[in-house]
Amino acid sequence: GFKQDEMSTARAGFSSQYEEAVAHLMNKGINFLALDFDQTVIDIHTGGRFKGTIPELSSHVRPMFSHLISSAHAAGIKIAIVTFSPQTQHIAQVLETLFPEFAHDIVIRGRDHSFLYEGNGMKKGKQPFMASAVEELLTKNTKMMITKNTTLLVDDDPRNIRLALKDGVRAILLNPDRSSLLIGDILDMP
């Protein structure tokens, strides 16, 4: 039986692999999750020029990321979408569609000229996007400390990952064709 299967899915009292992954992140001190959008959260690359509808774009969100984002939010981990796409309004509407209860808590940073990062940090890759997102999160959560060491970037571009690691931010490369490996990679994160 059923009981046996139930036990194997709810290993160690976690109701899902996503909650287990999030618990691991928290054990490792991660309180901020920065996610790329194209080919990471969604399974296509829009090139920042998506012409379809919001429901259509929403249908491209990988189910794994819906679960991971929900579990991370429930655990109090802050979330940002960091993208080179200028279509931040589209992304905001996708998040509204999928996470109506907490989409407003997810910070979006894209190439839409809405922000200027003037700090002293690295200006390459996703680094200024994350730094700017953290500035916004800290104004809303004044008691919180977010540092490079408490941040995890998930991105499909090896260059962004390399720059993040070089800058002291923890980062995991997502292989768009084998995206299901991400949860294992999170659980293996030292």
Present the secondary structure layout:
Layout: H1 2-9, H2 17-27, E1 32-35, H3 37-41, H4 54-58, H5 63-74, E2 78-82, H6 88-98, E3 107-109, H7 127-140, E4 151-155, H8 158-166, E5 170-173, H9 181-187
Parallel strand pairs: 1-2, 1-4, 2-3, 4-5
Mean pLDDT across residues = 92
Number of helices: 9
β-strand number: 5
What oligomeric state do the depicted chains represent?
single chain
Name the shape in a single word.
globular
Portion of residues in helices? 40-55%
Query: What is the helix/strand order?
Result: HHEHHHEHEHEHEH
Structural class: alpha/beta
Reported for the largest beta sheet, the result is: 5 strands, parallel
- Strand arrangement across the biggest beta sheet: 3-2-1-4-5
Ranges where pLDDT stays below 50 over 5 or more residues in a row are 1-11
How many angstroms separate the termini? 35 Å
The portion of residues forming beta strands comes to 5-15%
Query: What is Rg?
Result: 16 Å
Description:
With 190 residues, this protein is an alpha/beta fold. Helix content is 43%, strand content 11%. It contains nine helices and five strands. Strands 3-2-1-4-5 form a five-stranded parallel beta sheet, with helices on both faces. Helix 2 (17-27) runs parallel beside helix 9 (181-187). The longest helix has 14 residues, at 127-140. The radius of gyration is 16 Å and the shape is globular. The chain starts with a helix and ends with a helix.
Question: Could you name the key traits of this structure?
Answer:
alpha/beta, disordered N terminus, 190 residues, five-stranded parallel sheet
